[in-house]
Design goal:
alpha+beta, six-stranded antiparallel barrel, four-stranded antiparallel sheet, 19 strands
């Protein structure tokens, strides 16, 4: 019985000794992952606008040509809407009449044996007529398509005499001096490693040059490409080359860490 106890203690001591000699486990370092394989991309303008009228009517005039540079406030196209033009003329005539009545009645006047005070009423009528004129002029301005910012006219989608509907694209503008790169096939498996501010290298095949840039946006909504789920990532170039054109294809390598 005593021999068995001594044997058990000896075995236990040997196990503890072996365990004490085993080196302590080291923490596994977090791997750094880079998207070495380039993802396809396309050069696009940072700002593009498809302009349309909010009222319907035939196109009276297209005041610009494709490729032209326009400034904010320039008129691009106009509609022919006689009803709105006539409405402004009527409103202007009503204001002139109201102004005459107000000047005539702003002081009390004797009519026959009575003193008539129509000054307050005439003032109110004048105010209403002026507001009506403002509304008519505002409606007429809707027949003018105006450039919202300085840009290049990319395309004109209508011709004079053509009847357009509200919301129909008439002119497309874009700022070609501010181009950026958008990925087209970045997989959902890789987008989780991408963050805004990460550096990127962009290779433009048509120019056979590489450019440096930085990630500025990650689309929160996915697209599908050949059955795969992909996300659009936007890269702003550090310097835009003069020969870079909208629509050029590119390959993008994003330096990421996970």
């Amino acid at each position: 019985m005593k021999l068995t106890q001594w044997t058990t203690l000896a075995v236990l001591a040997l196990v503890l000794a072996v365990a004490g000699c085993t080196p302590a486990a080291t923490a596994t370092p977090i791997p750094t992952i880079a998207l070495d394989s380039a993802t396809s991309a396309e050069v696009v303008p940072a700002q593009e606008t498809r302009l349309s009228f909010v009222v319907s009517g035939p196109v009276k005039e297209v005041a610009v040509e494709e490729g032209a540079m326009v400034e904010a406030g320039d008129i691009l196209a106009t509609l022919s809407v006689p009803d709105l033009e006539y409405g402004v003329l009527q409103a202007e005539e009503a204001v002139r009449k109201a102004e005459f009545d107000y000047e005539y009645w702003k002081l009390p006047r004797r009519v026959g044996y009575q003193v008539v005070e129509r000054g307050p009423v005439a003032a109110q009528e004048l105010e209403v007529s002026r507001k009506t004129l403002d509304t008519a002029r505002a409606q007429l301005t809707q027949t003018e398509l105006v450039a919202p910012y300085a840009a290049t006219v990319i395309s004109i989608e209508v011709q004079p005499g053509e009847f357009v509907q509200p919301g129909q694209v008439v002119v497309v503008l874009a700022k070609l001096d501010n181009l950026q790169v958008e990925t087209t096939d970045l997989s959902e498996l890789n987008v989780a490693a991408v963050e805004i501010g990460q550096p990127a290298t962009v290779y433009v095949e048509a120019l056979d040059k590489k450019f440096q840039g930085v990630v500025t946006a990650i689309s929160p909504i996915s697209n599908t490409l050949g059955g795969d789920v992909v996300f659009k990532v936007t890269i702003k170039l550090d310097d835009q080359p003069a020969d870079l054109l909208w629509g050029m294809s590119a390959d993008v390598e994003i330096q990421t860490e996970q």
